[in-house]
Design a protein that fits this description.
alpha+beta, globular, 98 residues, 33% helix, 4-stranded antiparallel β-sheet, Alpha-Beta Plaits, 3 helices
Amino acid sequence: MSDIHVVVALYAKAGREDSLRRDLIQVVEPSRREEGSLSYDLFVDMNDPRRFVFVERWASAEAQNKHHSQSEHIRHFQEKGAANVESTEIACFLTRVI
């Protein structure tokens, strides 16, 4: 099975950038420690401070789905932090072709 890359862009509601940043930072370290996590980084767009981007690399789609999506810290974010999110974009990629 091949590793995958996941890119998740979250847009903060106007005026909620700082709250969303704090919420997102809380999921980084626990996500990095999850089984199957190869890398997990959070960025803020240089041209749009409302746009936060996770760039994730997982050993398999199963690891990402089973361990990450169902984790306590992600569930907590969905229950509490998601209120600061205006919209989300998600893209999944297989490892580089060349």
